């Protein structure tokens, strides 16, 4: 038995490990067949030029790991192992696929062959995900990046947050490091419930809240619990692309319903989305137009959902940022307040505010609205914490889905956030950010007027809220060319085309103003204007 | 128009808010119909006994929020709103369900009516999740709790971890707080790849690693990408209940394959799990028996998976804890090494260790094994970080699924963990824990012999590894009664019945020794023996 081996004396890997690896590979590759006798340790040591004890070490490990067996006095033999696996599966295509019977599927069979990786029998979900793969996160950072959905990370109270992190790590009982409730840390759920009552007029019990890894996960869990392939789902048009992707991956039949200056055209639901089992809506600040859904439409939407047994997902992705006027009450709050048996009916006798207090705290079990909120925009996206407020009968299935999917949100971050909210830091931070963003928004509007009048028109629906403005450009080239020109001038723009069911005639962009100081906003828009003017 | 209202003067809520709430509820409940004139502010102030400006405040907010409209000089009128939603959906059952045509579904129609919450049109996945809802996490803590799957949380280096947390928070560039790569932080993926090469003999590039929220999420994502309802899946019997639940929720047809003293009976796969698209296996330390899958079976399993185009999920949930002997090489490592084109074939000319080094670093694109690892057992479960090592062509779809599901793992915890591994703390901690757990394991075995000989028999497959031992009890009552007796004596036991496809004849328990010091292990077993003896 002659094995050709050579070791690399300059490599950092010890020679005994190199020898072990080389012999193991030769065995696995079938070069030394099962039952064959290996060279004596003396012979192999001489062959590759190592000390004999080095070879003995390598052989001992081969035996210990099961690649070889030592027979006393007779030497070391290759273990009786299975034949080395062959690379090509003999029946890789699932028999039920469209390619059944045609043998190996061809590269052109794109319906069953997902893009990355050949000959893999993906699930239907897997094929949909691979087909609609999310665009990569922007990593380049031009000096004037009008990123939407990103808060002012430099204005985040880092020192305070670090202090709370350290304290939370010190104070957390050891049991909190073990597996905890899938619903989330009780202290955090209580802090969120109290905040929602104070700030959003949404009264719910902490037991209606499940902590998630952001709204993305909340919506994914709802899609899994609620939607079968083929189920109709109403989405806003234009609307939030990430949500559309989740719903499309679930196999839902998306029914885009237009949005006007008052948000979702609720009156068109029956015509455009008959039988929809779920409606995704952004009533506080429509994504991307910025419209606010008026109370009358909210009530109509609730009545429609009740009648249909449909679920309304109220996505309040940045509803905390409103720079003037009252916030319209959350759909989820109206849902709870309007449930008969919860709010007393016309013949229920004298109405007292005390009754109402009880009412709101114990809404009926047949609510139609799931409110999803996020800390990504208010604190920072990398935190990965959000929550869902659910009608009572949906809580247990939702938490079971969360447990099955990833058990629970991380314990430490939940404790830090609970303290941040409960001790008032959250609302102080929010108040500061509102002032900051209101000023940046004003700078953006002034800059658009000063530098881009006649070229860039902001969506008329935009209200004084949120972290971005939808802007349409009157230019003789498309969105991609617009973004490329801007990038060359050092200006980062987020294209908005993906928000629309059909590409808009004029290139549209989401101008995020939160991460840029006023002077950079003005300078960025000045540069953008220059970049668009010159051919 | 007479509205009956009463306010609660002892409540903490300001009177103006109480009045607003009461009027709003009356409007929503339809007590004051659309178009009706509200009482004058003077009248209502007198009626409920508040100052007139308080009533004016409440009315102004009703107008601002859209519940009422003010007509100059004429008074305040209820806004033209939709009729109050009615609670009962008129067509809540999906038309395709078995109850179609029979009107309202009855409480006995359990196939379409999920357990929690009536009349909800759950998805098929939702019904499976609601049916197989995970048992609640144990919250009671008897003084002698032999919890499996929980490390020694009191031996965790809390102070060091806090220091790294503080440093990570200080050092993280602001961009890291924004959305990052779905794959995970590059620094963490590099640290994991280097650790796997050093400690587990698994050589992979950092670009084959995707960071997840623990192995639970990794397996859920694989199930979604790979399995359609009805697909056959081979699982170990006995095996890991949480994984079985995830696979069952995906609609997979579970094929339990027996386990013996050498782990999964790979030879029975063709008979018992023909056409299985996925095999879940715990080769380092079979869950729950503790068997180690020998090299020969590993190679047979790989060859089988290749032949079938099946995916092998190598679940290394606690493989770091081995208290003697060499670890058998990871399946994922064998998979990469055995791929033709990666390892040179018999006619590939002289074999050099240098070739092998290149080989392992760039495995072929047709691997069959996904290795999933977790930091829950090595650090702490509440951290919620784990990872998958994927064949190269599976990385992009898996990361796309992760992005769709919850975007990415939290940034801060990833940075802390990356530093913990890269700076050597992880392997030092592991070494300390191995010594600690080896001693605790010895105490458990000694205690079983001393106190429970003839009553409790440990599984013969158990190797010196892991954090628990599977023990069968020869007692004249069932598992539930056994656990109840133990609990009354202050001893916490984790029943193992759920690990088995069919309930075992003798009650079985997972005795976790990691969280208890030796003296408490001995005392706990002594008490357990007493509790079992007395009727």
UniProtKB/TrEMBL annotation, chains A, B:
Keywords: Aminotransferase, DNA-binding, Pyridoxal phosphate, Transcription, Transcription regulation, Transferase
Biased composition (Low complexity): 88-114
Domain named HTH gntR-type: residues: 13-81
Enzyme class: transferase
UniProt keyword DNA-binding present: yes
A matching Pfam family: Aminotran_1_2
EC number: 2.6.1.1
SMART domains per UniProt: HTH_GNTR
CDD domains: AAT_like, WHTH_GntR
Source organism superkingdom: Bacteria
MF-aspect GO terms: DNA binding; DNA-binding transcription factor activity; L-aspartate:2-oxoglutarate aminotransferase activity; pyridoxal phosphate binding
Region (Disordered): 81-125
PANTHER family, per database record: HTH-TYPE TRANSCRIPTIONAL REGULATORY PROTEIN GABR (PTHR46577:SF1)
Family assignment from sequence similarity: In the C-terminal section; belongs to the class-I pyridoxal-phosphate-dependent aminotransferase family.
Official protein name in the record: Transcriptional regulator, GntR family domain / Aspartate aminotransferase
Organism encoding this protein: uncultured Thermomicrobiales bacterium
């Amino acid at each position: 038995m002659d094995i050709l081996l050579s070791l690399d004396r300059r490599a950092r890997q010890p020679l005994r490990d190199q020898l072990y690896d080389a012999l193991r590979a030769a065995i696995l590759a079938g070069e030394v067949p099962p039952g064959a006798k290996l060279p004596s340790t003396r012979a192999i040591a001489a062959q590759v030029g190592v000390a004999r004890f080095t070879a003995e070490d390598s052989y001992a490990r081969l035996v210990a790991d099961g690649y070889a067996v030592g027979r006393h006095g007779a030497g070391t033999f290759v273990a009786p192992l299975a034949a080395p696996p062959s690379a090509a599966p003999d029946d890789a295509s699932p028999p039920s696929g469209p390619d059944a019977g045609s043998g190996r599927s061809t590269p052109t069979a794109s319906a069953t062959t997902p893009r990355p990786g050949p000959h893999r029998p993906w699930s239907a979900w897997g094929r949909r995900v691979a087909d609609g793969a999310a665009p990569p996160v922007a990593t380049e950072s031009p000096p004037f990046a009008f990123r939407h959905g990103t808060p002012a990370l430099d204005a985040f109270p880092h020192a305070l947050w670090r202090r709370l992190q350290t304290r939370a790590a010190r104070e957390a009982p050891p049991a909190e490091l073990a597996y905890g409730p899938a619903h989330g840390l009780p202290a955090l759920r209580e802090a969120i419930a109290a905040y929602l009552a104070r700030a959003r007029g949404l009264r719910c019990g902490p037991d209606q809240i499940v902590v998630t890894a952001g709204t993305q996960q909340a919506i994914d869990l709802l899609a899994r619990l609620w939607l079968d392939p083929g189920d109709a789902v109403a989405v806003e048009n234009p609307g939030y692309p990430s949500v559309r992707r989740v719903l499309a991956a679930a196999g839902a039949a998306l029914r885009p319903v237009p949005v006007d200056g008052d948000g979702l055209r609720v009156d068109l639901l029956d015509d455009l989305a008959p039988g929809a089992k779920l409606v995704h809506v952004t009533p506080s600040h429509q994504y991307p137009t910025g419209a606010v859904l008026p109370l009358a439409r909210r009530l109509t939407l609730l009545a429609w959902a009740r009648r249909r047994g449909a679920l309304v997902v109220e996505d309040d992705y940045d509803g905390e940022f409103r720079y003037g006027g009252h916030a319209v009450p959350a759909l989820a709050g109206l849902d709870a307040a309007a449930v008969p048996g919860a709010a007393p009916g016309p013949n229920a006798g004298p109405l007292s505010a005390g009754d109402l207090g009880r009412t709101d705290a114990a809404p009926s079990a047949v609510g139609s609205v799931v409110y999803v909120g996020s800390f990504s925009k208010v604190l920072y996206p990398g935190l990965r914490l959000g929550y869902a407020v659910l009608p009572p009968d949906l809580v247990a299935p939702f938490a079971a889905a969360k447990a099955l999917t990833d058990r629970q949100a991380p314990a430490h971050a939940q404790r830090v956030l609970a303290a941040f909210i409960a001790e008032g830091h959250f609302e102080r931070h929010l108040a500061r950010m509102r002032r900051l963003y209101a000023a940046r928004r004003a700078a953006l509007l002034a800059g658009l007027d000063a530098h881009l009048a006649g070229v860039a028109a902001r969506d008329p629906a935009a209200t004084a809220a949120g972290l971005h403005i939808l802007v349409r450009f009157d230019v003789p080239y498309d969105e991609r060319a617009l973004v490329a020109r801007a990038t060359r001038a050092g200006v980062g723009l987020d294209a908005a085309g993906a928000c629309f069911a059909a590409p808009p005639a004029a290139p549209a962009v989401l101008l995020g103003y939160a991460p840029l100081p006023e002077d950079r906003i003005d300078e960025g828009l000045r540069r953008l204007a220059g970049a668009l003017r010159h051919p």
